[in-house]
Amino acid sequence: MNPSIEIVSGQKVFFYDIVDSTMDIAHNLAKAGERGIVVAATQRAGRATGNKCWESPSGGLYLTWIFEYEPHEQRTEILYLGVALAIINALEAFGLKKCKIKLPNDVFFGNQKIAGILEEIMPYGHLIGMGVNLNASSEKITSQAITYQDATGKPIDITDFLSTFIEKVEWLKVNYALDKKHLIAQWQRALLKPTAYPL
């Protein structure tokens, strides 16, 4: 199925209704030289860390962002830390405060998961995938998870959230690209359990 392609907050976004995995599609696009974000309304086999499956019912935000491959280790770390913070900052912008990062790659609200991140780095692209539980009922995902709608009692416009998330990532990239120390400090404050850096 061909995607619809739109520009959202300055980024090229490939919108699909249903896919096996946005990460798999992103790999193919990256190999062809594409850059941008792959978004799907649902995934049949969404990927998570450790070959686990990410439950992806309609109502969530499921994406993989294709960044340029950057062999410089510090820049790679900045990007990964920044995406985790951007998810928290975007949720806060829509009224859901006090989300925390649970290492190695999850975002929690209270003691329940609201988002997860998957990173894959290849010579043809730095791919960061994520799933954010937004409007889907918590009953359709795992018992250890929660959605934005269940946490706040109201739905959220997924495209508006995507736009805000993109803006938060770009802001962090610009403001912390040359100031890793402050990014790490902000990341440490967002941790569910205090941890020294580097891990």
Description:
The chain has 199 residues and is α+β, with helices and mostly antiparallel strands. The protein has a single domain (4-189), classed as BirA Bifunctional Protein, domain 2, CATH 3.30.930.10. The chain is built from 5 helices and 10 strands; from the N terminus they run ββαββββαββββααα. The protein has helices at 22-31, 73-93, 148-152, 158-176, 180-189, and strands spanning 4-8, 11-19, 36-43, 46-47, 53-54, 61-67, 99-102, 106-109, 112-122, 125-132. It has an 8-stranded mixed β-sheet, with helices on both faces. It has a two-stranded antiparallel ribbon with strand order 4-5. Helix 2 packs across helix 4 (158-176) and helix 2 (73-93) crosses helix 5. The mean pLDDT is 88.
Please describe the topology of this protein.
Elements: E1 4-8, E2 11-19, H1 22-31, E3 36-43, E4 46-47, E5 53-54, E6 61-67, H2 73-93, E7 99-102, E8 106-109, E9 112-122, E10 125-132, H3 148-152, H4 158-176, H5 180-189
Parallel strand pairs: 2-3
Antiparallel strand pairs: 1-2, 3-6, 4-5, 6-10, 7-8, 8-9, 9-10
> Helix fraction?
25-40%
Terminal Cα separation, in Å? 41 Å
Order of secondary-structure elements? EEHEEEEHEEEEHHH
Instruction: Please give the radius of gyration in angstroms.
Output: 16 Å
Note the total helix count: 5
Shape: globular
The largest beta-sheet arranges its strands as 1-2-3-6-10-9-8-7
What is the CATH class designation? Alpha Beta
